[in-house]
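Teaching assistant here, posting this on the class forum so everyone can see the example we discussed in section. The complex has three components, and the goal was to see what a joint structure prediction looks like when all of them are supplied at once.
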Amino acid sequence: MSRVLLIWRKLLNIVMLTLTGVAAFGVVAVLFLILGYLVWNGGKSLNLNFFTQLPKPVGETGGGMANAIVGSLKLLFLAALMGVPVGLMAGVYLAEFGGKTFSYIIRYTTDLLNGVPSIVIGIFAYSLAVLPFKHFSAIAGGVALGIMVIPITVRSTEEFLRAVPGNLREGAMALGASKWRTIATVVLPAAKGGIITGVLLALARVAGETAPLLFTAFSNRFWSPGWEQPIASLPVMIYTYAIAPYDDWHRQAWAAGLVLLALVLVANIGTRVVLSRGGGGRSA
Amino acid sequence: MRKTLVVLFLLFAGAATAGAQSNPMLLNAAGATFPYPIYSKWFDVYHTAHPNIQINYQSIGSGGGIRQLLAGTVDFGASDGPMSDDQLAQAKFKILHFPTVLGAVIPTYNVSGVSTDLNFTQKALAGIYLGTITKWNDPEITKANPGVKLPGEDIVVVHRSDGSGTSYIFTDFLSKASDDWKNKVGKGTSVNWPVGLGGKGNEGVSGLVKQTPNSIGYIELIYAVQNSIPYGKVQNAAGKFVKADLAGVTAAAASMKDMPEDFRVSITNAPGATSYPISSFTWLLIPAQISDAGKRDAIKDFLKWMLMDGQKFNEGLFYAQLPKSVVTKETKAISLIQ
Amino acid sequence: MDRAAPRRFNGGGPRAFIHRLRHGDEVAHILTLTFAAGILLLTSMLVYELWVNSHLSRAKFGWMFFWTSTWDPVFDNFGAAPFIYGTLVTSIVSLVTAVPLGLAAAIFLSELAPRRMSDTISFLIDLLAAVPSVIYGLLGIFIVVPLMRTTVGPILIGTLGHVPVIGRFFKGPNYGVGFLTAGVVLAIMVVPFIISVSREVLLTVPREQREAALALGATRWEATWKVVVPWARTGILGSVFLALARALGETMAVTMVIGNDPKISASLFAPGYTIAAVIANEFTEATGDLYLSALIELGLVLFLMTFILNGLARLLIVATERGGGHPS
């Protein structure tokens, strides 16, 4: 009797363990499937037109997404401009100056902000940066994305500052540097690699966000000079083109998807490689 | 490290100034998807003729056009359903309606095995969208289509998920066609649809119908033509089945007795043997007072161009031209924009 | 000016304060504090805006908002029920799919795979988490939806549709879009979170636990399933909450494959709507003030849901890190 039980247990063992392997490789396979599809469908439509032309009127072929590519870059620039200083400073505060309770509150709030769905941030940015000024703008889009950049930046700044070895700080203080001097000239530069990778990861994350841009940056058929006009962006274009019935637009959506994914993955892979090589302390 | 920073900075600086011609006049507009094909053509052609004027039109639906105009975030809006008195009262400023083209809303479908034009009675369309008629071989549909083999499949109903003037035109027609509809659902840019899937924009509905077997949706004529999806004939007030075309739409407009001063009028279910019953004007919603002189002049100039030259593009994209009497009236009304 | 001083200036007292002030430390402190407080301000403003702008809707509908299932812009009658239902159903479907899958993968990565393989695979799976939502939506529309309509749907309806209790979830017309499709797409989006956190948590289980089980004659699987996993269960649960919080707020991928119909249906193949999706579709077009207010109230509801979940997740994960799990 126990012989049968033993065989059953051994069989179960093999089956379940194999299944776990299947699960793991299955999930990885999905990643490659996604990449594969995008490369297959998007690669076909990637041509010079895509990168240099403006969108053409509905039904006419041959348009491109030059303004959306530039638009996404401009939005990322604004997001970084607005989000990084706040996140950096707050991270410095938490790592270097913070008192116990206040730090806890700040960390909790930052986590909270991080968990807010991006569509809700879009609503907030609409009432903050669109309604009072009475128009959609790149700035409003930058505000929405900037808000999303802040929590990620805070976390990675704090993490990498804390990872700087104590003896570096002590050495600086022993030489007579005041606290802020130490931070500015010794600690921050030591943590700089990790912090920059954290910022890049944050930007890669918001580069793909669509929902908050729908009612802030809106979209634009043309170039968007300056910062106060509605502006096209890759994710919004992908969305608009994907749900339309025009085959030419679908092709462009795939191509745009490929470009966007390539940017995001390069940023992610690049930063992780740098991190693991020793740009910072714990892994992200 | 420093080099990469410099490169990045130059990249962004370049991006920031890209496309900045010598101060182009930028006008932002939003609204109906119904006329989007012709509007995008018009704004493109107009921009080529006037390179320093850019009109950025986003087709987010008539509801969106009205809302954003009321909020003041766009310079003008566009809608297939005229603004109601309530909505006009909500506005802090006076809004003028300018008809631009005439179009048709058609029932498009994707029924397995059917390649001919289906006839839809008014009762059939109302029943399908009310959810009382659920199968393609329902008697109300088969009796209007003798000789056509309709499958016993469930009808997949598709409607708009966004605030839409196309919905307004369609529900306006259904309200006239069926008292049941009028009382249960009513007309509007966004209604409480008894059944169906929601697609975003005319584009979304066309896409859904194209990809979903045994489905039916309502869209603007050009979207069916451009995507080669079949569309059926609709029974008009005189009892005749009419397939949407420019003649039928023009006939519906012609049967209108008098165009009101503010141009808000409904021509669905128009009398006349050849009238297409789901026809409508579509309007640009322009504020009566525009403080920025440059923008005001640009908009007025565009309207004039639209009424004269723009109309030439209509028929190529399956929209009917505005009746001459309407054009004359509108040209006069342009002067109301101060 | 920066003399090393034998006195402590990081303590209290006005002289110390003035010294710090003169030497920039206090300035730095105040400066960074201001930015940190700015985050507090920002978040408070967000909640405030949501609260204030949903006032019209809250005043008119009160608590009824939560169980009214009409969404009628023509007659100005709004209720959150269909959206809460859709949000919950799609999230549950995604978890039912992602948790077994994710846990299995995490077990493989922590218990079976050699370290380097485990690290590489984890790295690749983390990349899945970086793929933007709209791209999942793109793939959803053109690949998952047709697949669901032509292949998977009919199979499920043919088999599970006839099983007594759960049959009602697998009935009815199959459009390709619907709750199930949205749930499946969401599952792929949240599985990396479950795997990543679960794997880390499993790796912290002390070796002695495993070895003790094996010494007692357990098979590898039994040791894992009956000893290691239970030890880590708080942290794993935390990862599930994290994944759930993410699923609740997903917008683009969902709205592209769910069918956008504000109805409550038993069948998973029916079209539905989630809070995030309806806001995305209707926000720019809500033509009435009450309409807009109702949408913002939905945003507030979503915010609260994710707030509570994230809080719970945090508690659970922190509890694991501190206590190292409890013996059953």
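For the discussion questions: Residues 324-328 of chain C have pLDDT under 50 and may be disordered. The longest strand of chain C covers residues 71-72. Think about how each of these relates to the inputs above.
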